[in-house]
Structures are given as structure tokens and as C-alpha cells.
Design the sequence.
């Protein structure tokens, strides 16, 4: 059976992820390394587990979460679509059945807020898990003055901790921010498009989506 351990041990996956990390470093954008891949994989699986999905769906979500950003090894633009095709080829080469590999391809191809739409339980879990990973450690460049930081860096720099809770009928993203760096309302403004997509994804899963920042429920 192809599981997350099989994917992590594969040399082709390793080479592609290394190249993706080097491209992201060269572009100077927010960290998209194995740390991010590991967190998104874990949370994608936990969302479906929390909603009572069977182990097979959880396994697909974990793999989709781990591989979702491998398209960054080709180009940041359209990385969701290119990564989806790469993932399908890797998974079928490893012996995964075509239907399961296609499920993962579809989820990866829909994870980005620009063109993504929640189209399955796996893709919905992946969207929410990906957008939930905000943390100051994701900012890799040295920023001397917070006013010089771009929008993604500002949001991530302010984030001390983020985590998801999944209860029956409700998925909540909790974020702890340093409000000296970024106000709660700034945060909300920056994250509005992403949160709209999370809300759609939660709806696909039969849930409400809430965003809680520093203990205040914003949506
Ligand atoms: Fe992505
Ligand atoms: Fe991502």
C-alpha cells in the first residue's frame, strides 16, 4: 500500500522537493519546505479523521497534503496544476491505482486560492490545512522594519501560533498574533480571500468555518 512513509522515502519525491525548496529560496518568498508539507499533510488527515472519514480517504488526504506544493520545482506560477501532474506520475509509478492517484491530482490542482475550488472531501481538507499554516518561522528573509515587509511576510511574522479544531459541524482556525506587528483587522483584510475559500471548503465537508484571532471570533 502506498502511504505517506512510501512517499517520504522516495528518491524522486526528494529530488523534486529539494528543487522546489531551492526555487522558493531564490524567489525569496514564504517558506514552502518539508516543514510546511508535513504540517499540511498532518492537518489534511486530521480534518477528515475529525469528521469521521474512513482510513482510505485520510491516507489520500495525507499524501495530497505532503505533495501539494511540489509544482514549485517547475514555477511558482500555476504550481498547483503542474504539481498535480507531477504527483499523478509519481504515484502511478509507485504503483498506486489510477483512481486514487487521480483523486490526489484533483485535490492538488485545486489547492491554490487563485483557481482552486473545493471539489472533493480530500481537496476541501487540503485547502483548509494549507491556508491554516501561518507562522513567523515561514519568513526566511531578514526584515529590519516590519513596514518594509510584504503582505505575506507581515501576516506570517505576526503569527505566533496557528492550529485547527474540528468538531461536529464546525472547523475553526485559531491564530495567535502579535498585534504590535499587525492588527487583527489588518489580518482579516489580508486573509479575506483565503478565508472565503476555506468557508467554501468547510461547506463542502458539511461544516461551518470560523476564524478566531487572539480569542476573538471574526467569522
Ligand atoms: Fe501552494
Ligand atoms: Fe502550501
Sequence:
Amino acid at each position: 500500500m502506498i502511504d505517506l512513509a512510501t512517499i517520504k522515502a522516495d528518491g524522486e519525491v526528494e529530488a523534486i522537493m529539494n528543487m522546489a525548496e531551492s526555487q522558493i529560496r531564490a524567489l525569496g518568498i514564504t517558506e514552502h519546505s518539508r516543514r510546511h508539507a508535513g504540517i499540511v499533510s498532518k492537518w489534511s488527515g486530521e480534518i477528515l479523521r475529525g469528521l469521521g472519514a474512513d482510513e482510505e480517504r485520510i491516507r489520500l488526504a495525507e499524501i495530497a497534503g505532503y505533495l501539494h506544493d511540489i509544482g514549485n520545482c517547475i514555477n511558482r506560477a500555476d504550481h498547483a496544476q503542474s504539481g498535480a501532474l507531477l504527483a499523478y506520475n509519481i504515484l502511478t509509478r509507485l504503483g498506486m491505482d489510477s483512481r486514487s492517484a487521480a483523486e490526489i491530482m484533483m485535490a492538488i490542482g485545486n489547492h491554490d486560492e487563485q483557481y482552486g475550488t473545493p471539489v472533493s472531501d480530500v481537496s476541501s481538507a487540503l485547502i483548509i490545512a494549507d491556508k491554516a499554516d501561518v507562522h513567523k518561522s515561514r519568513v526566511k528573509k531578514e526584515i529590519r522594519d516590519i513596514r518594509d515587509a510584504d503582505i505575506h511576510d507581515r501576516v506570517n511574522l505576526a503569527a505566533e501560533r496557528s492550529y485547527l479544531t474540528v468538531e461536529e459541524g464546525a472547523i475553526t482556525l485559531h491564530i495567535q498574533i502579535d498585534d504590535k506587528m499587525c492588527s487583527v483587522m489588518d489580518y482579516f483584510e489580508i486573509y479575506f480571500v483565503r478565508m472565503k475559500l476555506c468557508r467554501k471548503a468547510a461547506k463542502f465537508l458539511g461544516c461551518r468555518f470560523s476564524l478566531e484571532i487572539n480569542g476573538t471570533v471574526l467569522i
